[in-house]
Design goal:
about 425 residues; alpha/beta; two-stranded antiparallel sheet; 14 strands; globular; disordered N terminus
C-alpha cells in the first residue's frame, strides 16, 4: 500500500488493525489527573441557533475522499487507515451577545491527516513540545470564586452533600510571543487546568515561528481552567464535565473568557486583548472527563467551538442519574455513538474532532453492554464520525493505559497542527 500524505514528515503506512487486549496494568506517565469521569454530550441540529446570541451556522457537508495520514514524529511505529471527509458549507455564527451574524471565513482544509491511526511504543516526547529556546510569551494565573458564578455556584442538587459548598478554581493563561495586542485572538480552552498547558506553550513557542507552513500554528491564547473538584457522580467535576448539557460551554464563554480579559495583570500587559467571535478560531482540549467535556463544548455549542481535542475521553455512561438531563439522555455520553446514536441521527456539525483511546484504557475488559468501556466508546465514536463524513482523526495507542502521559507527549504537537489545520497562521 503506498504511503499517504503526512503533516510534514513521511512515514511508512500500513493498514490499521486494532491489536488484542493485553492483560497489563495501566500507567500514567508524565501527567497527573483525576480518575475516570464522564462527558457532557447531547443531540441537536447542525447549525442550530445558540442561546448566547446571534445565529448559528454550519450545515451538513458532503462526503470526502478516503485517506488518512501517518502520525509524524510520534516517537513510535505508526499505521494509518482510511477515513476523511470534506467540510460542508459554513453558516453564520455569533459569539456572545451580538446583534449581527458573522460568516465563517475558513475554507475546507482537505482530508490530509484525517482517519484512523495506530501508534506503538516507544512513546518519545516530540521535540516541538520541549523548550527549544525560542522567544517566550507571557503566563498569567488568577482564581475564580464560585460564589460569583451564575452557572456553577457549588450548590447544585446533584452534588453529594459533602460537595455542596463554595469553591475557587485556578485559571492559567498563556499568551504567545507572536500575539499582537488588539487582534481578536484564537483560543484553546484546556480542561482540568493547568493540564497540558506546559506542552501547549512550548508548542506555541516553537511552531508559531515555524518556516514550514505545514508545521505552523496560529498564535492562539491558551486558557487552562481547573475543574471544580472531586470526580465522577456527585462531584463538581462530574457535574461540569459529565452532564449532557451546554452548561460548561456557557460557563467558559460567558464567565471564564471575560474573566481572562478583565484580569488586572492580563489587562496591564494586553490592554486590548479580545477573543475571536469565529468558532473556527476556538478549540478545546482535555483528557478523560475533561476530554468528554471538550467534545461536548462543540457538540452542544457548534456556534462557539469547532476544534475539539480529546484524549481517553469518557464517552461512556457517567452522567449523574439524578440530573434532569437524564430524562433526555438516559445513557449519558454513551448516547453519542450508541443507544440514541446522536452522531448518526443528527446532521453533521461543523466540527473538527481528534480522538485518542489506548489499548488498556479504562474498562477495556468490560463488555459493550456495560456502557463503560472507554476503548470501545472511542472506537464507536470514531466509526460514527467517519460514517457521517466528519473531519476526524482517531489515534489508537498500543500497550498504553488511560490518559497515559507519554502517549500525549508523543502526539500532541501533531495533534495541535491537525486540529488547527486551515486556520490562518501569520
Amino acid at each position: 500500500m503506498p504511503a499517504l500524505p503526512t503533516l510534514g514528515v513521511p512515514l511508512l503506512v500500513v493498514p490499521v488493525f486494532f491489536l488484542g487486549f493485553l492483560g497489563c496494568t495501566t500507567s500514567t506517565a508524565g501527567i497527573q489527573r483525576p480518575g475516570s469521569g464522564g462527558s457532557d454530550a447531547g443531540g441537536g441540529q447542525a447549525g442550530a441557533a445558540g442561546a448566547i446570541g446571534g445565529t448559528a451556522g454550519g450545515g451538513t457537508g458532503g462526503a470526502g475522499g478516503s485517506g488518512g495520514a501517518a502520525e509524524p514524529d510520534a516517537g513510535g511505529a505508526v499505521t494509518a487507515g482510511s477515513g476523511g471527509a470534506s467540510d460542508g458549507g459554513a453558516g453564520q455564527a455569533a459569539d456572545g451577545p451580538s446583534d449581527g451574524a458573522q460568516s465563517f471565513p475558513i475554507g475546507d482544509p482537505g482530508t490530509m491527516g484525517d482517519g484512523d491511526l495506530t501508534i506503538n511504543p516507544p512513546y518519545a516526547t516530540q521535540p516541538d513540545l520541549t523548550d527549544r529556546g525560542n522567544p517566550k510569551g507571557k503566563h498569567f494565573h488568577f482564581t475564580m470564586d464560585s460564589q460569583n458564578s451564575m452557572i456553577f455556584k457549588g450548590d447544585d442538587s446533584t452534588l453529594a452533600p459533602q460537595n455542596q459548598h463554595a469553591f475557587t478554581r485556578g485559571i492559567d493563561v498563556y499568551v504567545p510571543a507572536l500575539y499582537k495586542d488588539g487582534t481578536p485572538a484564537p483560543v484553546l480552552v484546556i480542561q482540568d487546568g493547568p493540564g497540558e498547558l506546559g506542552m501547549v506553550q512550548n508548542a506555541l513557542d516553537n511552531l508559531t515561528i515555524s518556516a514550514d507552513p505545514a508545521r505552523k500554528l496560529p498564535p492562539f491564547v491558551a486558557v487552562a481552567v481547573a475543574n471544580g473538584g472531586g470526580d465522577f457522580r456527585g462531584s463538581e467535576r462530574g457535574l461540569e464535565y459529565d452532564t449532557m448539557s451546554d452548561r460548561y460551554a456557557r460557563f467558559v464563554q460567558l464567565e471564564v473568557l471575560p474573566a481572562v480579559i478583565a484580569d488586572p495583570n492580563v489587562k496591564a500587559a494586553y490592554p486590548h486583548l479580545s477573543f475571536t467571535d469565529n468558532p473556527e478560531g476556538k478549540a478545546t482540549l482535555g483528557c478523560s472527563s475533561g476530554g468528554a467535556a471538550s467534545f461536548t463544548m462543540g457538540w452542544f455549542r457548534p456556534d462557539l467551538f469547532h476544534r475539539l481535542i480529546t484524549y481517553s475521553a469518557t464517552l461512556v455512561s457517567s452522567q449523574n442519574p439524578t440530573a434532569p438531563e437524564q430524562a433526555m439522555y438516559p445513557d449519558g455520553a454513551w448516547d453519542y455513538h450508541s443507544a440514541l446514536q446522536l452522531i448518526a441521527n443528527n446532521p453533521r456539525k461543523d466540527l473538527r474532532i481528534f480522538l485518542n483511546a489506548n489499548q488498556m484504557d479504562n474498562g477495556y475488559t468490560m463488555p459493550d453492554s456495560s456502557h463503560f468501556n472507554f476503548l470501545l466508546a472511542n472506537q464507536h465514536t470514531a466509526a460514527a464520525l467517519k460514517a457521517k463524513s466528519y473531519h476526524y482523526r482517531f489515534v489508537y495507542a498500543t500497550q498504553a493505559g488511560h490518559c497515559q502521559g507519554n502517549v500525549q507527549s508523543s502526539t500532541l504537537a501533531d495533534t495541535l497542527l491537525w486540529a488547527w489545520r486551515g486556520y490562518p497562521a501569520p
